[in-house]
């Protein structure tokens, strides 16, 4: 990526080196924005289907299964580079989504990015590196241990700045869902739960929509000429690497479709590509 001239977001809370601290600063943002007109989200087909254990917890287990160590596995130079990259990427999401919201007469509430090592307190419970990056809808913060990048590179074979940026953009996708009412809707569905399989199906839709939103962000970055040769392929590898089928095969040696909560590699790739090719959030239906 070419982010040389990009500003760094000011919405970063640096808790690195405070491993396990209960630095809990809950900010329950302002009023909810409600459903955005420009996104067709609530497709009737999914009404009545439940969602247990998905959005409510605010934990994105998308990238879990990849153990991270408590101490950073990054070199000083790598860590510093990823720190700057994360701040710049977050800034690009702020201006891109800020402008989409503005075009629709709405105000984008910028999420905070919390950088931490090992474990940290969140309004959704204790965040731990082993969970992978996640978004907590209650405090509207994205939690990221930079050492996840090391895992992407070594265990998921998804290296590169754009692949890492995609992970942040995906979490921002969950924040968009929170602002447009998808999170609240899915929590409501969760209360009407009737089976785990049905719940997982909704969970998959939620994850794929976040991937699609990440693609919409990628489209804009591409339009601005900020991608290098191979960047898109890089993100595709990342999207593919975090598919449930792939993760399950690696961790259990077999695939159980009913337990998929985040979509298969192919589904995730398709969702990301849909956003990336159109740049239109309206195609990211739930
Ligand atoms: Zn997710």
Write the layout of secondary structure elements.
Layout: E1 12-15, H1 76-103, E2 112-116, E3 119-122, E4 125-128, E5 134-136, E6 141-144, H2 148-154, H3 161-180, H4 182-191, H5 196-223, H6 231-241, H7 244-252, H8 265-278
Parallel strand pairs: 1-2, 2-6
Antiparallel strand pairs: 3-4, 5-6
Helix pairs in contact: 1-3, 3-5, 3-6, 5-8, 6-8
Bound molecules: zinc ion.
Largest sheet at a glance? 4 strands, mixed
Bound ligands: zinc ion
**Count of alpha/pi helices:** 8
The total beta strand count reads 6
In round numbers, the mean pLDDT is: 79
Name the shape in a single word.
globular
Instruction: Give the C-alpha Rg.
Output: 17 Å
Poorly predicted residue ranges? 21-59, 64-71
Reading the helices and strands in chain order gives EHEEEEEHHHHHHH
How much of the sequence lies in strands comes to 5-15%
Strand order of the largest sheet: 1-2-6-5
**Alpha-beta content class:** alpha/beta
- Helical coverage, percent range: 40-55%
Distance between the first and last residues' Cα: 29 Å
Please provide a brief summary of the model.
The protein has 286 residues and is α/β, with parallel strands linked by helices. Helix content is 44%, strand content 8%.
Textual characterization of the structure:
By secondary structure, the protein is of the alpha/beta class. It contains eight helices and six strands; from the N terminus they run E-H-E-E-E-E-E-H-H-H-H-H-H-H. The protein has a four-stranded mixed sheet, covered by helices on one side. Helix 3 (161-180) packs across helix 5. The chain is globular, with a radius of gyration of 17 Å. It binds zinc ion.
């Amino acid at each position: 990526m070419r982010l040389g001239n990009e500003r760094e977001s000011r919405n970063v809370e640096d808790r690195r080196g405070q491993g396990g601290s209960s630095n809990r600063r809950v900010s329950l943002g302002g009023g909810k924005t409600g459903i955005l007109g420009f996104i067709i989200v609530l497709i009737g087909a999914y009404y009545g289907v439940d969602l247990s254990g998905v959005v409510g917890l605010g934990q994105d287990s998308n990238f879990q299964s990849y153990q991270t160590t408590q101490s950073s596995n990054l070199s000083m130079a790598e860590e510093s580079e990823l720190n700057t990259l994360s701040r710049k990427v977050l800034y690009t999401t702020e201006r891109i989504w800020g402008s989409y919201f503005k075009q629709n007469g709405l105000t984008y509430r910028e999420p905070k990015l919390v950088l931490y090592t090992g474990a940290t307190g969140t309004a959704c419970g204790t965040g731990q590196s082993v969970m992978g990056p996640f978004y907590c809808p209650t405090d509207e913060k994205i939690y990221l241990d930079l050492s996840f990048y090391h895992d992407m590179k070594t265990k998921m074979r998804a290296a590169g700045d754009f692949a890492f940026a995609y992970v942040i953009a995906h979490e921002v996708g969950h924040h968009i869902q929170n602002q447009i009412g998808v999170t609240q809707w899915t929590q409501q569905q969760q209360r009407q739960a009737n089976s785990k399989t049905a719940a997982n199906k909704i969970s998959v839709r939620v994850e794929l929509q976040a991937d699609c939103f990440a693609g919409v962000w990628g489209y804009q970055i591409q339009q601005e000429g900020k991608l290098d040769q191979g960047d898109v392929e890089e993100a595709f590898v990342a999207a593919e690497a975090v598919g449930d089928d792939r993760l399950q095969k690696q961790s259990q040696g077999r695939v159980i479709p009913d337990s998929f909560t985040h979509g298969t590699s192919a589904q995730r790739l398709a969702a990301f590509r849909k956003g990336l090719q159109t740049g239109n959030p309206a195609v990211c239906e739930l």
